[in-house]
Design a protein that fits this description.
single chain; 122 residues; mainly beta; 7-stranded mixed sheet; 4-stranded antiparallel sheet; 0% helix; 54% strand; globular
Length: 122
Amino acid sequence: QVQLVESGGGLVQAGGSLRLSCAASGSIFRFNTMAWYRQAPGKQRELVGGITTDGNTKYADSVKGRFTISRDNAKNTVYLQMNSLKPEDTAVYYCYYVTGLYAWSESRSGSWGQGTQVTVSS
């Protein structure tokens, strides 16, 4: 069982920046993928960005060049630096953990954080 605790959401004006953090604890496997998903009202949850323990990353096209995902394996923590935020980035952002590398889609065996609200005003 893996527990995920997110922090860093909030309200920001368009063009601003936010940094999300997610700390994992529990039965952390050496090789894993951590990611950020988001869900806006009335929309399906989507992958924002993911990163493996060996540093490979994947981003949604909509955030490429604006968002950066990183991780500290010693702390089992993943970060999402969000720059040049747009109103369409408004959503609940969820941290996700799954055992294995390059796991870029949701799995029943994955673990989820409680979610953190990001609101971007125009």
